[in-house]
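Suppose you are handed only these lines of text.
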Amino acid sequence: MKFITIENSVLSENTYLVWNENTLRGFLIDPGSDGKKIEKAAAERNIKIEAVFLTHGHFDHALSAKYFQERGAKVYVHAEDADKLTSGTAIDRFFGVKFPTFFADVTFETDNNILKFNEINSKTNRNKTSEIRAADSKTDGDKTSEIRAADSKTGGNKTSEIQGADSKTDGDNILNSGGNVPRIEKDNTVEFQGMRFKIIHTPGHSKGGVCYFFEDEGALFSGDTLFSGDIGRSDFVDGDFFELKNSIISKLFALPDGTAVYPGHEEATEIGKERNNKRLFGE
Ligand SMILES: [Zn+2]
Ligand SMILES: [Zn+2]
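From them, the structure of the protein bound to zinc ion can be written out as follows.
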């Protein structure tokens, strides 16, 4: 896994272009206002952008998501922030910026340590759900589960299968018809194009706010939950200071000290440094 940071212009929001250096296939975390600049950065490196993972639905983190969706990338967002993208609650008007509304392709939930993907199909208004229960962590790694969509060229005859001793499904789990289906593993972890990361739900700045943790690389993409020397705002309509504080302390500060933190704005930091920051919560 490799990544670069691209700073956008509207609120100096950070976009992270993440890719597999062997296959040059990758995805964006939070495509901000400068879609063309992001696209150029990928093109210069011959990287194909196959997905967009949003840390939350605020406009500054999703301003060019629709642009990349129109070019074939699937957009993923936590279910509790999906409506921000479609209904004008992306706080864009608050900042006087026009946000191009759109539907995400897939929403996800992480409740009870069960990662669930829901494919949004605006044509049939039918959501297909995939659900895998986390395997018993005491067992070995062979009990991971995978979802595969069958040959997309057949169109009308799609099948999918789920393997794994501890997995449970509703039996209808086609995520998308392309060959780029993220694989759900145990512990809210996703494997996508040879890269593995955990989705950590961190409500407080936004109900559907998440962080993406790449354990092998010791890297956390924290959106607007945790910054260098500061925490996110909690004064928006679905924000909550105590929920935010709890998310940070119970979930992010549980990560190793040396974990690098790449936030949605401004410079990177480290978990250990922020955990030792006595004034982080301004109390
Ligand atoms: Zn935000
Ligand atoms: Zn932001």
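What can we learn from it? Residues 11, 13, 58, 60-61, 224, 264-265 surround zinc ion (ligand 2) (CB under 6 Å). The first strand starts at residue 2 and ends at 7.
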